[in-house]
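Collaborator request, handled under Task 6.
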Amino acid sequence: MEYKARAGEHACLGGFASPAVAPSCSLCGRAVMAAGRPEAQDHPPENGFTPLEHPVPRLLPHIDGSVLPSLGGFGKHQKQLVVLTWIPALFIGFSQFSDYFLLAQPNGTCVQPLTNESNWTTAPPQFTVPGGSPALQPKGNGTIREGYGDDSGGMLCACKEWRLELQTGLSQNVVTKWNLVCDSAWKVHIAKFSLLVGSIFGYLVMGVMADWFGRHPVLILSVLFMLVFGLSVAFSVNVTMFSTLRFFEGFCLAGLALSLYVLRIELCLPAWRFSMTMVASFLMVGGQLLMPGVAALCRNWPGRDDWQVLQIVIISPFVLMLPYVWLFPESLRWLLATQHYRRSKAMMLRIARKNQVNTTTEPSGVCVSCVLPELEQELHKKPQRTCIVKMMSTRNLWKNIVVLCVNSLTGYGIHHCFARSMMDPEAQPTALCHADYYTMAGIAVATCLALCPAVGLMGRRGGLLTFMIITALASLLQLGLLNCELSHSQAFQSLNALMKDTLNRKFSVAFSIIGMFSSHAVSTLSIFFCAEITPTVIRGGGLGLVLASAGFGMLTAPIMELHNQKGYFLHHVIFACCTLLCIICLLLLPEPRGQPLPESLADGETFTRQTLLHPGEQHLLLAKTDGDYSRVHDTPLHLTTTGGATVAAATALAAVPASYALATGGEVIGNNAIANGV
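Structure tokens returned to the collaborator:
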């Protein structure tokens, strides 16, 4: 998008002390003329020619180039608000990873079985990425068998009394509270579904509401209902009530995360957008890292179950966001884009005062009075809201958003495939849970660290394309190379088989770590990419679509576990094919680095794919011709009966030397043109 309203594209209004020397505005670089001065009056026509009027470009549509710089740019006020958007990111990280502890599978020992077997133990399943793991059914001989969909499951799980022990920090959670094992294990996955499904609906609904009613109402509404439903979860009396309330908790959590993300993006100038967003990502990963410690602190509290204390501890910090009703204003960018000009005027004066910007003049020439006169002329206009549905009437914008939705879905979906391949089935249960959890968190930290220099060097599109290529290569190598058969002779069959298993395991872990790293980067960058290219009037809805697609990708994990990982290989193959499709589609995306945020749908349409060559180098691709045919034109059909006299006269007129035209003042040429009927 090439509409660049930098410092220097508007007129500064207001009087100055010296009428002889017109000062210049640092935002426009032009001389400032006060209304009513003789120099500013129109001159009479000279030689019969009327000078062309050059309309003054509008300032209000150019928020990054004119409005925000006149208010102090990314000043103290904006930085304080960005910090306020960082604080809840830590609490959101707690809530998003609470399933690992509230719904963790325990070690189970049957104290009083219904059959003759006694004292057989079930080992907990592998600790996987969001969604938990399948319930394990013990056989009569004490071995472990996964699954609970067989007809013999009821017989193998027949037990009057269970002794369940957790190894994830809590001494009791939802699974141990209501004995959700064997035949009731499917309820655990429904509880995991509820939070993710609620988040998906929340992203879609709250995104539209943020575009229609504003970012601030959605933020405050989400905080209030997050406290209500989140604290109610801690007092659930059965798993059905727990799952239902978790759905609404996820709904409000999605609205909270989306509104904060949009507000943070809209507060920043182009140079600050990515860095401020990555700080929030680091804080969310910090919540993931601190979650085991928080769970350990909630263990063995008197009067309440551990999982209830943990839920209350996770939700209670959101009380700190209640003062946001007064501390956090509405997005100025959204107010201007939707023509809420009266509210915009009051907010602009407030921001200028907070940033200590003089509303009349500044020594540097940057003043709010450059923008306020135009704003005064627009006060009579009524607000205009736009729904995300109008995106379908665009030519390029909807394609860009669909591409980013597929990228987000693929990134989170294949992340589960890599995480499952990384698990070691022979590891000890307790060590497996903690090791894999911290491995995932460490990969997330490494991803955030790698994104900063990668995006700085290659840009948004280049970084996204690079990480998607790495994801596709890791996926294809894991599916292809690790399943090929090693050729070996009969004499070394057993030795080669052992070497094959060892090599396969090592390569599988290596490719899984690389794939988790790159897929996490793809998901994070796709969400940020969408926030940059989606216009302000529908940014909430567009970002909600991409975040909802990410939720669908995360939803594949509990779905696969509910079916006992049946069809896992096909699941991985499908997402590997999606990565190849995404690589092709990513080439169609624009590069928004350093560009102002689009405000209207028309601005969003100007975000198109740039050519690979520099514009000044494209003419080198054209073959150089010997003759000059620039003046050769086709003769219109209605002029063919005149014998081409008119066309010949026009051609002769075009061939008159410029020096002759200047010497005659254009009179001879004009007379000849009139005589020939031009």
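The cover message to the collaborator said: "The radius of gyration is 33 Å. Strands lie at 107-113, 121-122, 136-138, 144-146, 159-165. Please let us know whether this matches your experimental observations."
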